[in-house]
Amino acid sequence: MTDFTAPTADQVLAIRVNAGIEELASHDRFAAASADMVEAIVEGIGQFAAGEWAPLNRKGDLEGARLANGTVSLPAGFAEAYQAYVEQGWNAISGDPDFGGQGLPFTLASNVIENLGSANMAFTLLPLLTVGAIEAISHHGSDAQKETYLARLIGGEWSGTMNLTEPQAGSDVGALRTTAVPAADGKWLIKGTKIFITWGEHDLARNVIHLVLARTPGAPAGTRGISLFIVPKYHVLADGSPGPRNDLRCVSLEHKLGIMASPTCVMSFGDNDECLGEMIGAENEGIKAMFTMMNSARINVGNQGVQIAERALQQARRYARERIQSTRAGSASKDPVAIVEHPDVRRMLLRMRALTEGARALLYYTAGQVDRGALGLPGAQARADCLVPMLKAWGTDVGCEVASLGVQVHGGMGFIEETGAAQHYRDARIAPIYEGTNGIQAADLVTRKLGYESGGVLASLFAEIERDCGDAPELAELAATCAGIARWMAQDASLDDKLAGSTAFCTMSAVAVAGWQLQRQARDGAGGEAKSVVARFFAQQIATEALGLKTAATAGASLLYALDAEALAG
Q1: Residue pLDDT, tens place only, 461-489
Q2: Helical H runs in 49-77?
Q3: Based on the structure, what is the number of domains in the chain?
């Protein structure tokens, strides 16, 4: 496996052009995000990730997380690397200054996560989940809860988790059975089992703060009767230090395809009927609070697509320069050449680069809109909300495709574990699944987000792309086509028809936005000729492919139901 080198120049370009960091820094809240500060953060976290986290990536894959005597441990070096991360303040980049955070834009926190994840995707799930817990407590917690938990979560001394899924309740969260009954001192007794809990148990942080969905007595059925609870691994003493262990445990670790260094836990709460938690937010409004976590997590999972794509691209590029094989077709010379000289390998590498840089452009454009929403700028939050499912779905699809192409560039050696290319492919595959499958993201886009301002939010987005892409007619046509599909879905399509075309429409929309943002980078000029070539390739090939999805987006559902369930799946 090759070393990781942070793509600092491309990240700074995306932060400046796509996120619009200079405009953000013109507001008092983000005034500290000067050009010098941005470069210092991007360079600093890039060096940290390459030096501290990247060397553990292969080791984590080979050795994995281990459970023994109720304790989950990580391979040697992980604890020290996490402590260095905490001590250097990387976890606190965008945290509330009232609780020890640096108050910088979410855009810069996204860069921290991007670099850490490219260096070591499995390890980075630890701070990624903590971000979600911080968001939930910040927006829905009481003053006392904020005082107790936020500073330690923001600093990284404690970590956080999300506990939604149960054996019978996956995407159907309303089917959960975990219960919460009143106890003394306003606390609640929690009892139930949760599965697929990322970093649910580990020995790197002093405490693990679980956010757990459960039902209170007499609660309505379905999602209307779900509440959210803070359930710490260790009870928190009056001085804020961890006390006795709560009645919760990791029952087992899942055996997985990838992300071996990320402990995916089966968690049991209340085996002895003594698991105490405290409600966050109002009773029966847990879904609202949990969605605050999930929205943040979905952006960061889309970020994971960029992360793994970048790592796979770097490895493929290096291998293509070093691997000597065959003469170049059409060349007068009969000497063998590096495979980077062969047209098909060049096609794969250029496609990998265009997809990776396009996804990065979409990531930072989304992050910039989130920051504008935090500033209260008109229309920003609604646009960010519409971009999130595009980023999560298409971004993670990009991660899988680029990792797969990375294996292909290696040829037979890509199928051999020792090169490390296969690890990227295995690690990437979870991202389209968790935090709401990509099918759910597409459904969210065409059911909820399509209706924002009676379709006006998406319509204005596509219109802006079409106006701005006169130099890339393929993108202008794609944006206009997306606008037409959106109108058809809003006005004429049945719900089944919309859902049948949702994945294709989501892909088309994401490609239109990503290609547009790449064109903006190319016009800036800082990326040189290479960026211009990448942007042209994206527009001419990737956008054109996406345009071909129009038939799938508008075909309706009738053919999907032409066979009954038994004939289809029997």
Answers
A1: 999 999 999 999 999 999 999 999 999 99
A2: 57-63
A3: 1
